[in-house]
Fold this protein.
Amino acid sequence: MTGSHGRDGDHHGHHHDRDHDNHLDPMTARVMALETILTEKGMVDPDALDAIIDTYETKVGPRNGASVVAKAWSDPDYADWLARDATAAIASLGFTGRQGEHMQAVFNTPERHNLVVCTLCSCYPWSVLGLPPVWYKSPPYRSRAVSDPRGVLREFGVALPDGVSVRVWDSTAELRYLVVPERPAGTEGLSEAALAALVTRNSMIGTERDLSPHAAPETAA
C-alpha cells in the first residue's frame, strides 16, 4: 500500500483452537489449515507459535498503547511530542517493532472524533495495539468505515452528537495511526498506571469514545 490520508466522515462517507470449525470465516480457516500442514511437516513449532501469539495478545498490546495514552494525558510536554512525532515519542517508551515503525497520533476532542481503518488490507500497529481484532480486517468494516462512519460507530455503541465531526484515517504500509481518546472526567488524581487501565483497544482505534473512570482494562481479544 502507498500513501496515507485522513477523510472527514461528515463529507463522505490467541491461542488458536486447531479443531476445524465450519463456522470459521474463509481466511481464518485457510490460516488454520496452513498452520496444521506446516506443523505436521515439522516446519512450525506450535509451542513457539503459541508463545508469539501470547506475546502480542497479552504482553505487547494493547497495554503498550494504553501506556502511551496515559502518559499523554498526564504529561502535556509528552502529548505535544506525541502530536508532532508519534514515532519518536512512542519509541521513547520502548515500544517499537513490527508494523509500528511509522506512527501518527490523532487526538479526539469535544468537537472531533477519529476513526482508523485500513481500506486495502489490514495495516495495524502491532507493537502498540497487539493483534488486530477480527472485525478490523473484515471487508464490511473496511468499506463502511469510510462510506458510513457514523453508522459503524453506532453499531459499536457510539452515538455522536450532531456537533461532533468524524475524521477517518486510512492506515497504510508506510503510516499507521493511534487514536488518543479524551481523558475521562474524574481521573485527575490517578497515576499513569491507573489511567492506562482505563484505556481500551477499541478507543485507540476509534470505535469507542467515552471511557469510564471505573472501567476495567481490555485485552486484545
Notes: Residues 1-5, 10-23, 216-221 have pLDDT under 50 and may be disordered. The chain is about 40% helix and 10% strand. The beta strands are 5-8, 103-107, 112-117, 165-170, 176-180.
